[in-house]
C-alpha cells in the first residue's frame, strides 16, 4: 500500500508517493510564492528523512524549481530525468548540481 500526496504548488507539479516500506518517491518539485515549499511539507509534515527516487518529468522550471534544497539536505538514492529537448532556463545549473553529488544515481 502507499499514500499519494498532491501538493498545491501553484503552477507545475509536486506529487509524493509514500510506501508502507518507508520509501518515498517525489514526482516533480516546484516552489511558488505563497505556497508551502515541498521540502517543508516532506520534512515537517511527513517526517521524510530520505528520498528513494526523484522523477523530473520534463525540464520546465515549474517541474524542477525547488529540488535544490532537497538535493543539498536529504539523502536521495536516484533521480530520473526526461530526455525532452525543450530545456528551460536554470536546467543546466540543476544538472551541474547533480554532478556534484556522485552518490545520487542519475
Helix-strand string: EEEHEHHEH
Please state roughly what percent of the residues sit in beta strands, choosing from under 5%, 5-15%, 15-25%, 25-35%, 35-45% or over 45%: 15-25%
Secondary structure: number of strands: 5
End-to-end Cα distance: 26 Å
The main β sheet shows up as: 5 strands, mixed
Specify the helix fraction band: 25-40%
Shape: globular
General description of the model:
This protein is an alpha/beta fold. It has helices at 38-45, 61-64, 68-73, 91-99, and strands at 2-6, 15-19, 24-27, 51-56, 76-81. Strands 1-2-3-4-5 form a five-stranded mixed beta sheet, with no helix packed on it. The protein is globular, with a radius of gyration of 13 Å. The termini are far apart.
Provide the descriptors you would attach to this structure in a database record.
4 helices, alpha/beta, 5-stranded mixed β-sheet
Task: Report a brief summary of the structure.
This protein has 106 residues and is an alpha/beta fold.
Topology, pairings included?
Layout: E1 2-6, E2 15-19, E3 24-27, H1 38-45, E4 51-56, H2 61-64, H3 68-73, E5 76-81, H4 91-99
Parallel strand pairs: 3-4, 4-5
Antiparallel strand pairs: 1-2, 2-3
